[in-house]
Design brief:
The chain has 249 residues and is α+β, with helices and mostly antiparallel strands. Helix content is 34%, strand content 25%. Strand 4 (77-80), helix 2 (84-97) and strand 5 (100-107) form a beta-alpha-beta unit. The two termini are 27 Å apart.
Length: 249
């Protein structure tokens, strides 16, 4: 879903709220906060870089989100989206990728969790792609098989700057806790598009919906960790014969 344009109504108050979210995310992650957005338009802010780190603030009529990531972190997380199960999944993403993630989100949860889930994927993806810069030196590819009790999921990832999602995941139940299971595809789609990754997620088998989705997030984490790590043998080179990542192969 494309973000809707923010109106100028209450611009000062809205900008202050968005700025406060961005500052809270940056302070928790010990990064430089993103600049305050201009009223009247949805935004994805330029990154504030400290090494391979980025802070992004994103505001629409539906959500206000501030994210900071550090690709070279230790798996430290500080997440608050208002959706308990989504918080749990984003914590798994951070812990198993070793990417530090701070995420502060406020959304129209009085309607449902759709906008907050999707927009959180967009914001985290934007932060990752900005932190990657021109992607020079990265391993580029990553993959993982993640078992969780009766469940096994396979994830393969190419940080190619060519966004694409293959999602072969079915859930036996419509909800996990209070969260609709159909929203997990929305999160992965939003993340893949914003992060510029080709992402294949396939649940090979499983019976428990909680185990299935958690194995998907853990698989993404492990694959992403491999893909964004610097290859010391070619730390200054973009991993493509074209010399750039994006467009055609």
């Amino acid at each position: 879903m494309s973000p809707k344009t923010a109106t100028k109504r209450g611009a000062k108050g809205d900008a202050a709220t968005t700025s406060a979210l961005a500052k809270a995310a940056a302070k928790s992650a010990k990064r430089v906060p993103a600049p305050v957005e201009k009223a009247g338009r949805p935004s994805v802010k330029p990154a504030a870089f400290v090494g391979r780190s980025a802070t992004v603030a994103r505001k629409t009529k539906e959500t206000e989100i501030a994210v900071t990531v550090n690709l070279d972190g230790t798996g430290h997380y500080d997440v608050s989206t208002g959706i308990g199960f989504l918080d749990h999944m984003l914590e798994q993403l951070s812990r198993h990728s070793l990417i530090d993630i701070t995420c502060r989100a406020r959304g129209d949860l009085h309607i449902d969790a759709h906008h907050t889930t999707e927009d959180t994927g967009i914001a985290i993806g934007e932060a990752v792609t900005q932190a990657l810069g021109n992607r020079a030196g990265i391993a580029r590819y990553g993959s993982a098989y993640v078992p969780m009790d009766e469940t096994l999921t396979r994830v393969a990832l190419d940080a190619s700057n060519r966004p694409y999602l293959i999602w072969r995941v079915k859930f036996p139940r419509p909800k996990v806790g209070e969260m609709d299971t159909e929203l997990f595809k929305e999160w992965f789609q939003a993340f893949a598009q914003a992060a510029g990754v080709t992402l294949h997620v396939e649940n090979l088998y499983g019976e428990n919906s909680h185990h299935i989705v958690e194995s998907c997030f853990k698989g993404l984490a492990r694959a992403l960790r491999q893909a964004v790590e610097i290859d010391p043998r070619k730390a200054d080179a973009v991993p493509s014969t074209k010399g750039v990542l994006g467009g055609s192969l």
